[in-house]
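ingest -> fold -> write
write: protein_1
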Amino acid sequence: MNKIKSYQGKYKPGEVIPYKISRSKIENFLRCPRCFYLDRRLKVAQPNGPPFLLNSAVDKLLKAEFDIHRLKGVKHPLQREFGIDAIPIPHEDLNLWRENFHGIQYLHPASNFLVTGAIDDLWQNPAGEYIVVDYKATAKGNPVTELEDTKWHDAYRRQMEIYQWLLRQLGYKVSNTGYFVYCTGKRDEESFNKKLEFDINVIPYTGNDNWVEKAIIDAHSCLNSDLIPKSSEDCEYCKYFNERTGVEN
């Protein structure tokens, strides 16, 4: 993969060097254009939340486990258990595509954005289509067996679709169906015994990436405006700021 010279951080209107923008920043734009603008154009970022280190550990271990089967060219037991006709597939760029600060990269000509997104895994079906796979970990009373009608799961759906879109822009044949390997920590065990047990479900999702192109163009227009956008009605950061400002003034 040829490295494309780009910059990130504070956006500079009129800059000819491509601007690197991650999948998560596009998601931030969709959630609240105002917060996105303040972050990317004016460098006033939202407060960072705590790192999800247990989730990262699950992610790392799953990658290592699927890589064992990738090297052997055989199905993972979870693929057999859930009747998925696919195998973990090797690819020369997979390690780069997994890196958070590299990921899959595509230079979007209309915006001059270098759009990036780091995938967790890549499978392939008998038709030769690549399958995007994302790992998720949580701890709830009941195992997660399907995507729910929540803003968090809506964001997961968009995450999958951007990954599918990125691979298609690079010329790959990509299945509309991706999978979430969803690990739910068991909280009702009798004792801890230095280990955390998980229920694991492989959840299919049929993506539709038709919205991605417009979102990138709209994000580009947002950053090139000299007007700060209005707050989203459901943005918790803007609500906090407005309520605090109202009290203090």
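write: protein_2
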Amino acid sequence: MVLLFFIHLGQVSLANSLAFVVGLAHIFSRRGQYPYSRGYLFLRVMLVFWLIPEALIGTKFLRYSLSLIPLIYMTAAVGIAVTWDVVTDRLSTIFRRRRLGSVVGALVVCTIFVIAPVALTVDCLLRSHPSLYVNVLGRRRIGYFFPHDEFYDLGARESIQFMAKHASYGGTIASEIPGVAQYYLERFNRSDINSEIISQPSFSLSNERPDFVLLQRGRVYLENLDNSALIERTFPIAHASLYEGATTARVYATGTNERQVTSED
């Protein structure tokens, strides 16, 4: 349970994660002086009754942890305040001046817990997709823990464009996103292509197979595990969409007249 929760923290900036750990230790080891004791009690109760169910039940979808995020940041705020007090005390001892130690301590804490996370956020927004961020606690394993929320339909447009370009007239493609596929097929002037759903009970690869099948790491369900495994074992990859070094979507050539076309985005 604790391991799963700290995997969730792998999606939060390292500075805020460390502040949360400090705050967590503080609120559970001290009652706090009134009226702060009421806030400590609130955080203890809410973290226990939200953290345990979240760690046990909501581990597949990262978005389930959104309701827990405010409590994480409130606890991190406590950790930042505790860190500020410790740093100020140490610096005041070194400088022998309380006011100077307090100012320098504030600058240090602000740099670590405010300026650095803001700079990281701006960098993610400008350079990449924010949902792909993983800190060192997550070992920077993009799309490994929560592909459904990190990837979702990332790379789907490029994959559908590839299938629209290479599928035969009146052919068929299969995916888990028929609505998205239909939208892009119309945009790419391939309304003649039919679309199937892999997880449908009627879907089969034994008779008339679709020209291409789109498999997405953000669209893995119990209903499509068997078909996905069969497709990965049997058919060649014709196209792959890569982001930040991680594969988000793969197109397999499954038609009887397979075209050996390989491409990466």
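write: annotation protein_2
The mean pLDDT is 83.
The first strand starts at residue 172 and ends at 175.
pipeline exit 0
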